[in-house]
Amino acid sequence: MRLCYTRRRLLLALWDAAIAVGKSFAAQEGWGMGLALLLLIWLITLASTYFFVAKTWWLPVGAAASAGFIDRQFTLTFIIMGIVFLAAQLGLGYIVWRYRESSSSPPVSYSHGNTTLEVVWTLLTAVLFIGLNLMGSSVWASQRFDAAEAGAVQVEVTGMQFAWYFRYPGPDGKYGATSPKLMDPSAGGEAAVGLNTSDPAAKDDVVTGTMYLPVDREVDVSLRAVDVIHSFFVPSLRFKQDAVPGLNIHMHFKPTAIGEYEIACAELCGLGHYKMHGVVHVVSQEDFDKWLAAREAEKQ
Amino acid sequence: MGHPRIQEMATFTPTTPLDDIGHGHKPPAPPVGGGDDGRGGGDVPNYGARLRRARLGLACGIATVCMVFISLTSAYIVRQGLPTFDGASNTYVRDWGKTDLPWSLLGINTALLLVSSVTMELARRDAARRAALAPLAGIPGVSLGNEKSFPWLGVTVLLGIGFLAGQWLAWSELHARGFYVSTNPSSSFAFLLTIVHALHLTGGMIALVWAASASLLKKPVESRRIVVDITAWYWHFMAVLWIYVFALLGFVR
Amino acid sequence: MVAMENPHAHAPQGFIRKYIFSLDHKVIGIQYFFLALTAVFVGMFLSLLMRIHLVWPNAVLPLVGTIQPETYLSLLTMHGTIMVFFVLTTAPQGGFGNYFLPIQIGAPDMAFPVLNMLSFWTTFVGFVVIIAAFFVTGGAPLHGWTGYAPLSALPSAGPGEGLGADLWITSIAIFCVASLMGALNFITTTLDLRAKGMTMMRMPLTVWSWFITAILGLLAFGVLLSAGILLLMDRNLGTSFYVPLVVVNGQIMGHKGGSPLLWQHLFWFFGHPEVYIAILPGMGVASQVLSTFSRKPIFGYRAMVYAMLSIGFFGFMVWGHHMFMSGMSPYSAFAFSLLTMCIGVPSAIKTFNWLGTMWKGRIRFQTPMLYAIGFVSLFVSGGLSGPFLAQPVLDIQLHDTYFVVGHFHLIMGVAAIFGMFAATYYWFPKMFGRMMNETWGKIHFFLTLAGTYAIFMPMHYLGLAGGTRRYSQYTEVAYLAKLMPLHHFMTWAAIITIAAQFIFVINLFWSMFKGPKASDNPWEATTLEWTTATPPPHDNFGGVTPVVNHGPYEYGVPGAAKDYVMQNDPAGVTAH
User: Does domain A153-299 have CATH number 2.60.40.10?
Assistant: First the structure.
């Protein structure tokens, strides 16, 4: 099928233009290189920004009490950094093209700098960065400086190569003793965490491989690890904390939406790091009570 | 012919008047500041510059060794203080332990090292004096007495060997008392700190031996002086470092 | 080592003294450069295998067969270690720094040439040791370049954690010693060997960057050495510095009471200055090249110096920002976070000043300039993801995800590399006496700039969506499996970009032998290396001691004869 006359002319014109661009591309002088740089930098900048703004890949929907603030802080940081990003990159592209050397460009503006400008932009940057940081610090404080609310659900999360175990202390509210000598990961459940069944406090401890939590109630998590460092990460609940052997780390959060949320281990722990995952089921308070009661019953 | 106005000049520096750029064919001002790369005049090496340079290099090396010991100290303090979680009791427990260090033996070693520092300093000053007098030897009619001065370097080497031997005895004594590297954290650090110090001291010993034998190698006396000087400062640093390690093991138990 | 006699009295004869155990800083610089070039190709090959494994896990590849899951983590570990140590700490500092520091300050050589030679060969031994880790029983370690204990301290915690891990630690320890020797040399040379008239404030910014980098190295590598020694002791002597009572696969390990956080503190106290060691020389080169090719002085020379000094200083105070999620005290997290935001300020100042240098300049687009411009763009992109990670409350979401991987690759893996490309194209004529091919240089630049953005920008999206890092497969967790299309895109981008690097290598070697001969000052630049012959003679200045009368970036001086005034030009003296 022969192309019609106009199309052929158009293609030839495009081809000639491409050759011309290519030629001035390789030349020292000419608008080619400056323009090419501007176009590439602007294209990369605008394309990257598009995907951020469109939230094509974004934070999963937040299902915890802290999500509101964290997401707002994210958005604020994005907007500010986004403006700086666009200004700097688009500015770079523009400057590189605008001040290209050619036979018609004016002599350079000989200058060693401008003290006032330096001071101004230093102060502005400092205020911006530090201000942003201080704004985010109140949620950090409430999550990490303060203890969990009274009446929080207690769960102990234990990480080991390559699974998560969850222990509920039961009606007595106390965690029973564990011992390394009693640990047997291949047996799963109580044996995996080395529960000392002769300890009276351990009689009502429930150990499971899945985590159930009641909605709208604070959870007081105790994080432990048996062998190497793991990290308990539930993106939807905006929660992450390393589980470190030798430590028992207390952290709290409050799930606010019923659903199932995946756990992904977030600290390299060996071969099976990629498959060390679990699920958090956030259910109503009564469903949670029923589930826990059923687990207690199984122990008898 | 008008010159374009110079815009904002160097940040924080004064504006350069146009005249000084040589337009009025003024002779250029002599260079201000900068260094003297020690090339000296012609073939005569500038020993003063070389000494300064060597001392500067040594200062850098000492800074690094300090960082090694600072980080080991930090590890020491952290390890001593940090407890670990015990699942059986649901509490945090510490396990620093204790080490029965042979204090009198270590005290003798300390004395040996301090004395060696004194002898080393005497050797250093002696070398400096000889190097200062060396140019006079070329003056006809002047004869520098070839009197052999006291072999301070040799004495220092002996005292250094004495220190290392003493440390070896101290480690054997620790073994005899049942304290090995892995017995408890306290003993781990005791061995670690003293062994790392001893290794660095041995490096200094090798330099010392080389400095002592340099006189046999017919190197110019000024060059030998530089080696002795650097080794001496390093040696004093090793003594100070030892006092520090001694104090850490002794007081931060 | 003290220079006992003047090693510059005679140029060495004989192949061994001239090319193998040379004391000439120029030869040593080239040796470092080629070591780093070898290392970067090894590192790139490892990353190619990683990217291929992630999207085509069952592919059968020539030479390596199918990549096993356990191999992936070893590839990851070795890629990081080789790139950070043997490329980013070797080429900019040991390579270009060694070659050009003495010349740019007007000295005939480094302060301690024998030490210089030793530091190169020690680095080389370190490289051999780490490569050896691939070939021992169990293979290379799988604990990541960060080597967190207890994973790195327990031989039974995974394959490769046996002899491979011991070799890894040993190699790093050897590298520490080599770096310390080099740092000592650089600092002494800069302080003591400057020519007459070369005041500190007339030194090129490249010299400042090498000087500050050397100070950082001097203070940081000793800490890594200690950390490594403690790790070796835990692994082999039964001590418990880092390992508490742990149970691996049902077996109680013989350790008690140690602290994994201790390793992290020691490692990151080194690790954070290390990343500034990796980037500062690139910043110096960017300043140098941007000024030369804009035909304008660098905007705010003093501010640039103070900015680099603050970056170095603050760099020692922010290590905890790698540990927000580690179980460290939340109060210290707050303090580290604030200090980290502070360190963003001097980086921003430098960026403004680079833009200010080009503003109202006359920009020439030879290849070194393209890379310097690319450096600025990449530094902005990589740097702006920093304020996200610096806020602990946002780091909750982003720590250990691809967001972090994207951040540090854009800065270290691309911007710093662009600094090295800029340095290579810029100084190649002086080093080898010939010009590199401009057309192929430009093609290499455009492909690499677009390609590296294509590889590393999507990592930010991945991280925001919760894409965890160091996973050898993304098939087990449902929300991660959904992100595979991004991985496919990045793998294709990686394949194309890595292929494009062969253009550079071919250009490099071809030009060394067949490139057009270079004049003494092909870029019309002002610093002292361009005043001497191409390539420079053995004592750098052919018996003439340079005398410096001007600052380093006197371009476009109104009323001057040419549009640049060389530093040693006797006509006229500038006040600074």
Answer: no
